[in-house]
Amino acid sequence: MRELISKNQRIIMVPHDFKFANKGVITDVAPDYFILELDYAPEGILKSNYCEFYTQTKHGTLYFDSYAKEINGNTLKIASPAKHKFLQRRQYTRIKFVMELELVSNEKLLKITTLDISAGGMKFKTFEHINIDENYKITLPLSEEQNIECKFSPIRIEKNNDDGYTVSGRFEYVSSRDKMTLIQYCAKRNIEIKNK
Fold it and tell me: Integer distance in angstroms from the first to the last C-alpha of the chain?
C-alpha cells in the first residue's frame, strides 16, 4: 500500500452517509496507517467506522475501505487497508447511464437520451440543435431522494445516420460535494455491475 499512496497526495473520504463526504491531503505514511489532513471538519465521520477512499495514482483510480483510528480536529489517523482495487485507468469512473433527461438553455428545454456519465462529464444522443459554445444546465437523478444539478459544456458533437447527434462534454459543478457524490455513485455502480 505504501507504494500506492504518498505524502501530499489528494484523497476523497466518503462515510456511509455520503452527504458527509470530505477530501484532504495525506501528510504522512507509515506501515500500518497514514495521516490525512481534511479540508473540512470531519462531520459524520466516526472513529472505527469504515469509510470509502478514492485517489488518483499513475495506475488509475485507487479505491479502498478503511477507518479512522484517531480523530484530532481535521487530522485523522487512517488504518492501512487490508486490500484495495483499481477502478480504471481514466481519471473518473465512467458508467452506462441511459435516461431521458432535459438540458436547459435560456429557459428552453432540450430533450436528450444519456448514454454514459462520469464525474467528468457525459455522452448523450439528441435530435435537438446543440451549440458547442454554450453552457447548459442539467439535473441528474441518482436516486429517488438525490439529484445533482450542474452545468454541461459540449466538447464534441457528431452527426448520426438518423439525423440526430451524439454529444460529449464535461460537467462544471456549483458544489464540490456534488462532484464527490457523483464520483462515489459511479464507482459504486461500476463495482455493482462488475459483480453481477
Answer: 28
